[in-house]
Description:
Order of helices and strands: EEEHEEHEHHHHHEHEHEEHH
Shape: globular
Number of domains: 1
Radius of gyration: 18 Å
Helix content: 25-40%
Largest sheet: 10 strands, mixed
CATH superfamily: P-loop containing nucleotide triphosphate hydrolases
Bound molecules: adenosine-5'-triphosphate, magnesium ion
Low-confidence stretches: none
Structural class: alpha/beta
CATH architecture: 3-Layer(aba) Sandwich
Strand content: 25-35%
Distance between the termini: 32 Å
CATH topology: Rossmann fold
Number of strands: 10
Mean pLDDT: 95
Amino acid sequence: MAKRIDIKDLNLFYGSFHAVDGVTLAVPPRNVTAFIGPSGCGKSTVLRSLNRMHEVIPGARAEGQVLLDGEDIYSAAVDPVSVRRTIGMVFQRPNPFPTMSIRDNVVAGLRLAGVRDRKRLDEVAERALRGANLWAEVKDRLGKPGGGLSGGQQQRLCIARAIAVQPDVLLMDEPCSALDPISTLAIEDLIGELKKDYTIVIVTHNMQQAARVSDQTAFFNLAGVGQPGKLIEVDDTEKIFSNPSTKATEDYISGRFG
Ligand SMILES: Nc1ncnc2c1ncn2[C@@H]1O[C@H](COP(=O)(O)OP(=O)(O)OP(=O)(O)O)[C@@H](O)[C@H]1O
Ligand SMILES: [Mg+2]
């Protein structure tokens, strides 16, 4: 199997608290991997460790390896800022810069990287907004504040902002949890489109969503309060939802707990 991301024996800590124990998991290119599991099992923690956002939290650290196309993003030679450019992230709550214009929101990352050419920025903004399926709705109001969009539009704006810098991988942490069902379907359709170009890892509490959008599903669990979260199994989504290997996975997906 070709591997875009290859996680090897990854352990994650918050100070002395061992939050996630020994995750080994590979993500193929142009694939959607869903992380599922009960609250507190470490899904967000693992996701943040994939673009070195975990260590931004004071006292937080990672042990183990995360290879991106064979190169360990945790090796001393690697600049975390460049990792975050290659591996973009979309959060649970849409977080556009509210007073900044729609256009400037999309190109914020490029401007930060020093791009000043207006024409180039306009082109990138249009391409990213088209890619995020938002162009038709905002093309006549690009100068208006990002905060003036609906929740679903704001989330697509954040996706546009993430893809504007042309990342290889997109990490999404419950990207639909603040959205209504129509906006949720719009984002799910978009994920289906984006996976032609990107490798996507999505955390979701919505089993239907995991089944609809992902190719591969990873189930995490924890033995009890204060225990570290663990990866229980990872497999083709179809297999996980029809014939999981462990009883814990079966109980979780059939809604018996969590
Ligand atoms: N900033 C932090 N400082 C200390 N502990 C944290 C921090 N963030 C998370 N944790 C702990 O790490 C463990 C895993 O948390 P995480 O947020 O990764 O879970 P999750 O699976 O994403 O849960 P949810 O489904 O509720 O979002 C939990 O015990 C949590 O309390
Ligand atoms: Mg979480």
